[in-house]
Design brief:
ligase, Histidine--tRNA ligase, Rossmann fold, binds adenosine-5'-triphosphate, nucleotide-binding, alpha+beta, 3 domains, binds magnesium ion, elongated, 15 helices
């Protein structure tokens, strides 16, 4: 046998027995998005590298360590998208969606690629469902975006969710905070990791998000941004909290969260389960302008689908799954097989999920197979059935038999569905 090729590290096949979980999560998310008037957007899997250098930020972990970047045959630097926001903003600007009535509410379901240390809940290709709302600076929109994420996670059956929020300030107040933070970090400079030493000048707040233990120890006592907010940010934050209270969404304020992307301003948030951070998001009022668009505010989030599925499974939450087949049609003899083949085809036009024998198996083996597939009903077409034009439909759950005429497939369809 030829040598077997394995999937690249950090990637996973989505197998048929798991597909329903993905479809269910996606459909719950889509249905909830609809109730908010949020429409779908799909952007390419790869972009010019510059988009992420500018959009995600060149001092972030994503840009410094995690991007899948390569030159294509035309010698352009291309990057597989490591997250969804930058591409959606690019599409918003490029397609002039800012000229339409605002706000623009968009959702996406996409793979994302990051060259990470592979571990539980950390893959190199993973998937996100996310949302971006452009054009509203109102705190009610921050709360609404958080509500979409919470609605989705609750609808899926998750109970122990914690929402942590923070405010990162704006270009008005953040410089003052950065100064205070730098002053504090300067006193501890030697203890920082090498990467954080480079972050110290360019973007000291990044150091608060460093995963190195020694940096974490240092930043535990760092000044917090909430003490440096300007009046506008302070009022905004107060109102977001009021709106969340109105929706009875409980939250904790966590001044330690800064999130792994540079573009955030004002509100940021994370939603945690017992094991993982499953959702991260926030406001990014300067990104559209920074990427060449108009000065327009924005807020969004992304949920990690793999982490979500792992959490649902761990918490024993059942994901609805339908039978693979409503009816298995077994057959005796060549005439029976032909009739079964034809009947399956007719029933499918009525939406019945059915299957017949394509394996040349005996009746006994066929019924065993039907059982294994979890067919809700079975029937057998042989000489008797062809002559009498009648079939017996056997309900597998209790063995009850329903008789139906072969000339009336509507009735058959009605019984087995
Ligand atoms: P972390 O701090 O865990 O690295 P992050 O801040 O990099 O997360 P985001 O960029 O905010 O994560 O992505 C949003 C969500 O996507 C995360 O909350 C998580 O559920 C999921 N996610 C991020 N990176 C990965 C990964 N490598 N594998 C699987 N899921 C991921
Ligand atoms: Mg990360």
């Amino acid at each position: 046998m030829a040598m077997e090729i394995q999937a690249p590290k950090g990637t996973k096949d989505m197998l048929p027995q798991d597909a329903y979980k993905w479809q269910y999560i996606e459909s719950v998310f889509r249905d909830i998005a609809k109730t908010y008037g949020i429409r779908e957007v799909r952007t390419p899997m790869f972009e010019h590298t510059d988009l992420f250098l500018r959009g995600v930020g060149d001092t972030t972990d994503i840009v410094q360590k995690e991007m899948y970047t390569f030159n294509d045959k035309g010698d352009r630097s291309i990057t597989l998208k490591p997250e969804g926001t930058a591409s959606v903003v690019r599409a918003f600007i490029e397609n002039r969606l800012f000229n339409e009535a605002q706000p623009t509410k968009l959702y996406y379901i996409t793979p994302a690629f990051r060259y990470e240390n592979v571990q539980k809940g950390r893959l190199r290709q993973f998937h996100q469902c996310g949302l971006e709302v452009f054009g509203s600076k109102e705190p009610s929109m921050d709360a609404e975006v958080i509500a979409v994420a919470m609605d989705t996670l609750k609808k899926l059956g998750l109970k122990s969710l914690s929402l942590n929020i923070n405010n990162l300030g704006c270009p008005n107040c953040r410089p003052k905070y950065n100064e205070a933070l730098k002053k504090f970090l300067a006193e501890n400079h030697d203890g920082l990791c090498d990467l954080c030493k480079t972050r110290f000048e360019k973007n000291p707040m990044r150091i608060l998000d460093c995963k190195e233990k020694k940096c974490h120890e240092i930043t535990k006592n760092a000044p917090i941004i909430l003490d440096y907010m300007c009046e506008e940010c302070d009022t905004h934050f107060t109102k977001v909290k009021e709106y969340l209270d109105m929706l009875e969404i409980s939250y904790e304020i966590d001044p330690g969260i800064v999130r792994g992307l540079d573009y955030y301003t004002k509100t940021i948030f994370e939603i945690l389960t017992s094991d993982f951070t499953v959702c991260g998001g926030g406001r990014y009022d300067k990104l559209i302008e920074e990427l060449g668009g108009p000065d327009m505010p924005a807020v969004g989030f992304a949920i990690g689908i793999e982490r979500l599925i792992m959490t649902l499974e761990k918490e024993g939450i059942e994901i609805p799954n339908e039978n693979l087949f409503d009816l298995y049609i077994g057959a005796r003899g060549e005439e029976g097989s032909k009739c079964a083949f034809k009947l399956a085809s007719s029933l499918r036009t009525l939406g019945v999920k059915c299957e017949t024998n394509h394996m040349g198996r005996s009746i006994k083996a066929e019924m065993k197979f039907a059982n294994k597939l979890g067919a809700a009903f079975t029937t057998i077409l042989g000489e008797d059935e062809l002559t009498s034009k009648k079939v017996n439909l056997k309900r597998m759950s209790d063995g009850e038999i329903f008789e139906a005429s072969l000339d009336n497939i509507e009735v058959i369809a009605k019984i087995v569905r």
